[in-house]
Amino acid sequence: MAKRIMNILIVDDHPLFRHALIQAVRHGLPQAQIQEKATVKEFYEYLESGAEPDLVLLDLNLPGASGFSALVHVRAQYPAIPIVVVSAHEETSVIRRAITHGAMGYIPKSANPDNISDAITQVLEGDIWLPANISAHHINDACSSDETVLAERIQSLTPQQFRVLMMVAEGLLNKQIAYDLDVSEATIKAHVTAIFRKLNVQNRTQAVLAISALNISEKTI
């Protein structure tokens, strides 16, 4: 019986590193079908098209995202799709928080191709992959209670509300967001109102301050 061809999605805004990841994937899965996306917007559009990747390799520093926000939200919207974070951040605290937020693995960008290949194989088999210096039984309680509550609220947003929130965080006005998303300003106002309610905040400043809890550099352990 022929072995099923795996569909791997790489989400990273650096073309050179996407190329390096492709080579690493090919090293372990030479027949894999590989897709590339550079922004959260492209990522969501791909998933909303009905695509079902077997694995996502996700950078944490992406245009249209704030720290762990994309990981948190995508895991909630597409829980069956395993996500491996691939990041230049190698701090133990960041790795632990990524796993707590639902990543199935964490690959430092300094890892060699063999490590990346091993990680992909292990996660596709249903296991969690961590760098050798991280112990899986130390992952629990990596996030503060405030961060956990915020993650749950972020998960409750619709994909469009999440996009709007990230654009609000970038400082865009409703009119600019409406133009970029090709919808009416009234629609954006309705989304913003719903976002404030779901995040339990009163205004844009509070919303931006709230999601800062999901930033990567908020804490060290």
UniProtKB/TrEMBL annotation:
Keyword Cytoplasm: no
UniProt xrefs under SMART domains: HTH_LUXR, REC
Alphabetized UniProt keyword annotations: DNA-binding, Phosphoprotein
InterPro entries assigned: CheY-like_superfamily, EvgA-like, NreC/VraR/RcsB-like_REC, Sig_transdc_resp-reg_C-effctor, Sig_transdc_resp-reg_receiver, Tscrpt_reg_LuxR_C
One Pfam family here: GerE
Keyword check for Phosphoprotein: yes
Domain Response regulatory: 7-124
Residue positions, PTM 4-aspartylphosphate: D59
GO molecular function: DNA binding
Transmembrane segments: none
GO biological process: phosphorelay signal transduction system; regulation of DNA-templated transcription
Domain named HTH luxR-type: residues: 150-215
PANTHER family: HTH-TYPE TRANSCRIPTIONAL REGULATOR YHJB-RELATED
UniProt protein name: HTH luxR-type domain-containing protein
Classification of source organism: Bacteria, Pseudomonadati, Pseudomonadota, Gammaproteobacteria, Moraxellales
